[in-house]
Amino acid sequence: MKVSVVIPAYNEEENLPVLYERLKAVLDRLEGDYEILFVDDGSTDGSFEVLRDLARRDGRVRVIRFRRNYGQTAAMYAGFEHATGDVIVTMDADLQNDPEDIPRLLRKLEEGYDIVSGWRKDRKDPFLSRRLPSKIANWIISKVTGVELHDYGCTLKAYRSEIAKRYRLYGDMHRFLPALARRFGARVTEIPVRHHPRLYGRSKYGIGRTVRVILDIFLVKFLNEYITKPLYVFGGIGFLLLTAGILIELYLTLLKIFTGADIGGRPLLILGVLLILAGIQLLSTGIIAELIVRTYYESRGEKPYVIEEKLNFGE
Ligand code: UDP
Ligand code: MG
Question: By the 8 A CB rule, do 22 and 54 touch?
């Protein structure tokens, strides 16, 4: 079994040499082969020079350098694409994750899981700006997606390669990988891992991340459950609105015809018009989304299902 450790790094020059030494000590103890894949996410400090030195000294260190800063998710995506291992482990470059936890993640994976997520049980980050929002977010994500984890935000995770390589990652979605994996029927679990305070360099995120996480929760829910049937979402709501609008206008029309009442100034009239318009809009959005989804799958030759095994298929 070969392990690929994927590490996005953005301005982490002081951390990288220490991380490499610790990681190597752990990985050398493992039985199989390994590679350490650093993705330099457009660092402006000496990170790349440090990585180049490491790559010169050690052939198992592989480095991808981005032209500019594209973000942690893009760095991870690139790492997944280029990883050659059977198992991919992701971790931060800032020494907040502990390489010593990797063997435990791998052992858990061997029990038959597709993803083992780290849980920073004793997290060393500020409470108000980081730990509290994270607690709330994890609770919501768990409830909404049905994949219950204490710590989506922990980068230290181990994936079976086939699963990790299935993702097309955009935006800030890397933290949702275990939830997104539900679409592929992945078996997900978590184990507590160590966490250390950041010693060198600065955190790249602040409280502003919360809004993006909330928006992403909607997206994950949609991707997991409705990606192959967007018409049911948009069309469903559109249909309700349209029906309500038609009923309202029908009622006003009858009122006008039979009682001759003056309906021109009634708020209900405007509400009805609004509902009809919104309903039609949503219905057509649903149809367009259906077309887009078909293009999405067919252009990539992808199927909306994942087969676990086939028997008697002569392979
Ligand atoms: N990172 C990156 N690109 C970015 C921001 C962060 O590659 O645009 C890396 C960073 O170098 C670190 C990891 O992502 O290895 C996590 O970042 P950070 O430690 O700042 O996040 P925190 O631990 O504070 O949530
Ligand atoms: Mg960190």
Answer: no
Backbone angles phi, psi at 85, to 5 degrees: -75, 165
pTM across the whole model? 0.88
Distance from the CA of 89 to the center of ligand 2, in angstroms? 16
Residue of 39, 94, 157, 210 best suited for mutating to test ligand 1, as the one with most atoms within 8 Å of CB? 94
> Which of 3.90.550.10, 3.30.70.100, 3.40.640.10, 3.40.190.10 is the CATH number of 3-225?
3.90.550.10
Question: Is the CB of residue 119 less than 8 Å from the CB of residue 155?
Answer: no
Of the candidates 189, 35, 165, 23, which has an alpha carbon nearest to the alpha carbon of residue 108?
189
Q: What is the pLDDT of residues 37-94, one digit of tens each?
A: 999 999 999 999 999 999 999 999 999 999 999 999 999 999 999 999 999 999 999 9
Residue list, ligand 1 pocket, CB within 6 Å: 8-10, 12, 41, 69, 71-72, 75, 92-94, 96, 203-205
Q: Average pLDDT, stretch 222-239?
A: 92
181 CB neighbour count, 10 Å cutoff: 23
Task: Give the model confidence (pLDDT) of 168-226 as tens digits.
Answer: 888 889 999 999 988 888 999 999 999 999 999 998 887 778 888 889 999 999 888 88
| Nearest ligand for residue 198 CA | 2
* Residue with CA nearest ligand 1 atom 2: 72
User: Would you list the domain boundaries of the chain?
Assistant: 3-225, 230-300
